[in-house]
Write a structure and sequence with these properties.
The chain has about 200 residues and is an alpha/beta fold. The protein has five helices and six strands. α2 runs parallel beside α5. The protein is globular.
Length: about 200
């Protein structure tokens, strides 16, 4: 339950003063669960194990923010499975669904399917909500051209899309706003840091 506090030096990272009016916000975090995420890290753990703990920590942190709802999902094109696996729905709290985060990595990187799913999920949200999607991925999408078209569609329907590249610079050629990290161990502070920058909140 307190994993996000362990992962952060300052658990009150989202507490800052702002003169802007608070806005109801919906955030979706998408995690690449393709087979390349099975690689071992310097600690001997698989990248997917570290990454799933990071997105769970992010969910726990987001749950503490008023006027914000979050959804977390993983995407891969494993045979016999849907391309998007929902880990936490908007109406759920991360601590109650943490068992769903025990996912395995396999298959390719269906970013286009994940973005289409995201657009459909946001379409169900209240029209006055700010909409933000953050994608954490370690490589190129399976259908690059289609992914770019869907990212353009996100802009047209007022969805802010951000990318985090895990040991990869590919996100810089896909997302207008992105950053790359050297290893999956840096994912948690990268996720929290990005959200801290894009979310205007008052203490």
């Amino acid at each position: 339950r307190h994993l996000h506090r362990v992962a952060l030096d300052k658990p009150n990272v989202f507490e800052r003063r702002a003169r802007t009016n608070s806005m109801n916000t919906s955030v979706i975090v998408l995690l690449d669960a393709s087979s390349s995420m099975n690689r071992s890290t310097s600690s001997g753990r698989s990248a997917i194990d570290v990454a799933r703990e990071c997105v769970l920590a992010c969910g726990l942190a987001l749950d503490s923010i008023s006027n914000l709802d979050s959804e977390i999902a993983a995407f891969s094109n494993s045979k016999g499975k849907e391309p998007v696996e929902l880990l936490k729905a908007f109406h759920e709290r991360s601590e109650y669904v943490s068992s769903r985060f025990s996912l395995k990595a396999s298959g390719g990187t269906p970013l286009s399917e994940a973005l289409l799913w995201t657009i459909n999920e946001f379409a169900k949200r209240p029209s006055d909500h700010r909409r933000i999607v953050i994608v954490a991925t370690d490589g190129e999408p399976s259908l690059r051209a289609t992914s770019l078209e869907l990212l353009s569609m996100c802009v047209s329907v007022r969805i802010e899309a951000y990318g985090i590249g895990i040991g990869s610079e590919a996100v810089s050629t896909l997302f207008e706003k992105s950053e790359s990290i050297g290893s999956v161990e840096e994912l948690c502070p990268a996720l929290i840091g990005m959200l801290h920058r894009v979310l205007p909140m008052s203490a």
